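Page 42, continued from yesterday. The earlier attempt failed because a stray header line got pasted into the input along with the sequence. Redoing it now with the clean sequence only.
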Amino acid sequence: MKMLLTVEFPHEPFNTLVRTGQVGELIGNIMDSIKPEAAYFTEQNGFRCGVFVVEVAEPWSVPAIAEPFFLNFKANCQFRILMTPDDLQRAGLAELGRRWG
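This time it went through. Structure tokens are written below.
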């Protein structure tokens, strides 16, 4: 299943890793490990941020994706399930509306 991973990097230790020239290699190693389908870097809430589309085959694989960010950057990670329009069509919204609406 595809998930959207949003990573918010605190200023430290990110600033220190930039100053020591280590941040690029570290992020590259993490990208090699998690193999995102897409990766973007931006700002969020005044912090550096990464937005990644990752494939999560099983729930137990989430720590292998998140821990590199937690351990190396003390980052905050948020995971969101992604659906294609076809996935949404298969969700049975009409039936759910009848049952719960």
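Notes: The mean pLDDT is 97.
Reminder to self: strip header lines before submitting.
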